[in-house]
Design goal:
Blueprint: H1 5-31, H2 35-51, E1 58-65, E2 70-76, H3 78-101, H4 108-127, H5 131-149, H6 156-185, H7 187-191, H8 198-203, H9 205-214, H10 218-232, H11 241-244, H12 250-259, H13 264-276, H14 279-301, H15 306-326, H16 330-361, H17 377-391, H18 397-416, H19 422-446, H20 461-479, H21 481-494, H22 513-528, H23 532-545, H24 551-573, H25 578-599, H26 613-631, H27 635-655, H28 659-679, H29 692-717, H30 727-734, H31 744-750, H32 754-776
């Protein structure tokens, strides 16, 4: 458990939002909608505690599953503090904003509880230093976002968006989990002991890279991490869930989809950058990030809804951060870290402004809005600062981090040459489109006012103050970027590189390559802006003509295909016939067992059969009884012959010197025989006609089940010189040290639950189906 003051603070920061989540149902009964301010107080407390950790670096933790090297470890450095401060700081503003925006909305208790749990999950991801803990917090963010995106449960668009976000982000999390397991699998050779401790891996990056390459796992781990990060941070082609998630309430969009959740992928790319930096890393993440930056900027220009525009813009800027961390140059890491802060400030402000516009004007359609500066002058000022920051216009804060990306892409192309010159070209292209959609958003306030636009009221202070404060902070960073660098950005950037570098930014005083790229991007965007409407229509027409190119189209087709397949499969599985249920149950059980053997690459050892004559006689009688069961003409004959088979098994146990098992078998067989005789009169006297296809299927299933049991017995009892120790030997050896018991049977039942649990589930399920069949279908024929 934590002992130092710093350790206590870290644990408190992560635990406090979850404790508050548990209190929300009680407090909501007393505070009602004012529960928003309780959430703001919790977020402010977390922010204050994190500020007290400024300058702290190190790992703290407590044991969790020591036998697997898993612990509840946390790591504090500049990168974690920057992300944690953004999550808690913007959380304060979002809770205050929600107090006014969510007035009279339904299900507010669930909303505030989910928002607090989400903040705790983000803080957990930021500070967790154990891969398993990171994965758990990572998936918690997806669960909470599912609840928040689907807040309006009675609206189809909200449910659709929540399912899509869950499907994509949770699916990506599974890829990430596999990558974590592979990463941990080489720690034994790289670090001397197997562990999931990410801090230990980051302390020895060269050894980890060498171990991964020797095991042939470097590229697979890199690809799996990329998929996980791409799903969370909406990278092409997995970006489509983010615009759909705009069905969520605006405070959710500002918190999850501008400042925190969508940056989790970026955060983790930055965290693993020192560990996996390589030519493959640069090629993958620089390409992925710049492609997303350009494509989503174009899609933002095609948007017709202000939140849709901001959503595509968010994905584009996330691509900028991913690309920054992709480049090996120090400027790339600085671009990623600095833009994480800049983007959170101006984009959260813009989402909150969009909420004010929608709330007061009653529409989010871009074509229906304009000239709002007359009705919303302060909001217009906030929008101006945030929009120009998003466009990367100097001296606003977005300019500095985009300039660093230009410098990183140019240096990479200058060093490698050839096709690498596409990187700075794509960066300039995406930035030109960024200027276009940023100015278009700004024109909602400074353009002409549509005649159909009704009265627009001033927003309450609780809605205006949060975006105004964010815009003020963005303005301060733009005027004095050195303050932000000294406070958080420098330490954050240093945590994502191996060799540190002092960061300096400012307005260029000479025509450097990066400055020239900025001039081309801004000048090109300004030159094209008069043709914005024509460009907007052209992109939308192209998207309509090329529907299969859109990722959203593929998602819909896949989901619809799964639904159709389920609709066709369900009647085949759930048709009320016991034979069908037994086939699926036993077939699936056998498939899982045999797949497990294949995955672990076990081999069936050679066997030497040495049996006595009495044993041979018993087995012959058992085989004859088994065939007799199959050809029995009636239920009575079938029951008697199957009991004969059971009694032969009991005699076999006696011959094998297992009288306790023999006695148990005799008791069970006797009871089963009596029960069968009692229910015989309730079922048809003779079997119905058996279809040939059913007979073939039953025979094949019997062979599969028999083969599974045979292989299991052989592997469980093998004990040869060339083979591994048998399962029985392993259980016997580990009963005391591993299971803490002296009775090997009890230890297997309680601790080694693999096949035992699987078998119990199968037996109970089939027994239950049999009972239901006898009760509900006793008057039908015997073909069930």
């Amino acid at each position: 458990m934590p002992s130092s003051p710093e350790a206590v603070i870290v644990f408190a920061v992560v635990a406090l939002p979850f404790l508050a989540t548990g209190l929300v149902p009680l407090l909501f009964r007393v505070l009602g909608e004012r529960t928003a301010y309780f959430g703001a107080i919790v977020a402010l407390a977390c922010f204050g505690l994190l500020v007290s950790l400024h300058g702290t670096q190190g790992a703290v933790g407590a044991g969790w599953v020591p036998s697997l090297g898993v612990g509840l470890r946390f790591y504090v450095d500049g990168w974690a503090l920057l992300f944690g401060l953004l999550a808690s700081g913007i959380g304060v503003l979002v809770f205050v904003y929600s107090a006014a925006y969510m007035h009279d909305e339904p299900s507010l208790m669930r909303y505030y509880a989910a928002l607090l749990a989400f903040m705790g999950s983000i803080l957990g991801v930021a500070f967790a230093a154990d891969l398993i803990a990171i994965f758990l917090f990572w998936e918690l963010t997806s669960v909470c976002s599912f609840v928040l995106i689907g807040h309006y449960t009675d609206e189809a668009d909200s449910r659709y968006a929540a399912r899509m976000a869950m499907f994509v982000t949770v699916g990506g999390g599974l890829f990430l989990l596999v990558g974590f397991v592979l990463l941990a699998s080489v720690t034994g050779s790289a670090l001397g002991s197997a562990t999931f401790d990410l801090a230990a891996m980051l302390a020895n990056p060269e050894a980890m890279r060498t171990a991964l390459r020797e095991a042939g796992l470097f590229v697979p781990v890199l690809a799996l991490v990329a998929v996980g990060a791409a799903t969370k941070s909406a990278q092409v082609p997995l970006h489509f869930w983010l615009p759909n998630a705009m069905a969520a309430p605006t405070p959710v969009s500002a918190f999850l989809h501008a400042a925190t959740m969508v940056k989790v992928g970026v955060y983790f790319v930055g965290r693993l950058r020192p560990l996996l930096m390589s030519p493959e890393w640069t090629l993958l993440f620089a390409t992925l990030g710049l492609a997303t930056m350009a494509i989503c900027a174009v899609l933002a220009v095609a948007s017709t809804d202000i939140k849709e525009l901001l959503a595509y813009s968010t994905a584009s800027h996330l691509g900028l951060m991913i690309a920054g961390f992709g480049f090996a140059e120090i400027y790339g890491a600085e671009a990623g870290a600095f833009h994480l802060l800049n983007h959170a400030l101006f984009k959260a402000a813009l989402f909150l402004v969009a909420g004010i516009v929608a709330h007061e004007a009653g529409t989010r359609r871009i074509a229906e809005l304009g000239g709002l500066r007359e009705d919303l002058p302060l909001t217009a000022l906030v929008a101006a600062v945030a929009s120009l920051s998003m466009a990367g216009v100097p001296p606003f804060n977005g300019f500095y981090s985009k300039e660093l990306l230009f410098e990183a892409s140019y240096e990479a192309a200058h060093a490698a040459g050839g096709a690498w010159w596409l990187y700075p070209a794509i960066a300039v292209f995406g930035s030109a489109f960024t200027f276009l959609y940023s100015v278009r958003f700004l024109m909602l306030f400074f353009g002409d006012r549509p005649e159909a636009l009704g009265d627009v009221h001033r927003p309450p202070v609780a809605m205006l103050a949060p975006p105004a404060l964010l815009a003020l902070l963005a303005g301060v960073v733009g005027v004095a970027p050195g303050l932000a660098i000294d406070a958080v950005v420098q330490s954050a950037a240093d945590s994502t590189v191996i060799e540190t570098h002092e960061l300096h930014v400012g307005i260029p005083t000479s025509l450097t390559p990066a400055a020239a790229m900025t001039v081309v991007a801004l000048g090109g965007g300004a030159a094209v802006y008069p043709f914005y409407a024509r460009l907007h229509r052209g992109i939308r027409a192209g998207l309509g003509a090329l529907a299969p190119v859109r990722a959203n189209w593929w998602y819909d087709r896949i989901v619809e295909g799964l639904e159709r397949s389920s609709a066709r499969l369900a009647p085949r599985v759930h048709n009320g016939v016991l034979r069908t249920y037994a086939t699926w149950m036993l077939g699936a059980t056998s498939a899982f067992v045999l797949a497990g053997y294949a995955a672990t690459r076990v081999s069936v050892p050679s066997m030497e059969l040495a049996v006595s004559i009495p044993t041979v006689l018993v087995l012959v009688v058992a085989i004859v009884a088994a065939f007799a069961v199959v050809v029995a003409p009636s239920h009575v004959a079938g029951v008697l012959t199957i009991s004969l088979l059971g009694f032969m098994v009991a005699i076999f146990y006696i011959l094998a010197s297992a009288p306790d098992l023999a006695l148990t078998q005799l008791v069970v067989e006797t009871l089963a025989l009596l029960i069968f005789l009692l229910v015989l009169e309730e079922i048809p006297e003779f079997y119905g006609d058996l279809d040939l296809s059913n007979a073939v299927r039953d025979g094949a299933l019997s062979l599969v089940v028999g083969a599974t049991v045979f292989v299991t017995v052989v592997l469980s009892t093998r004990e040869t010189a060339e083979a591994e120790p048998s399962l029985a030997h392993y259980f016997t050896e580990q009963a005391v040290p591993g299971g803490g018991g002296t009775n090997v049977v009890n230890v297997i039942l309680v601790d080694f639950r693999g096949f035992d649990t699987l078998g119990e589930i199968s037996v109970i399920a089939i027994a239950a189906l049999s009972v239901i069949t006898l009760v509900t279908m006793r008057d039908r024929g015997g073909t069930q």
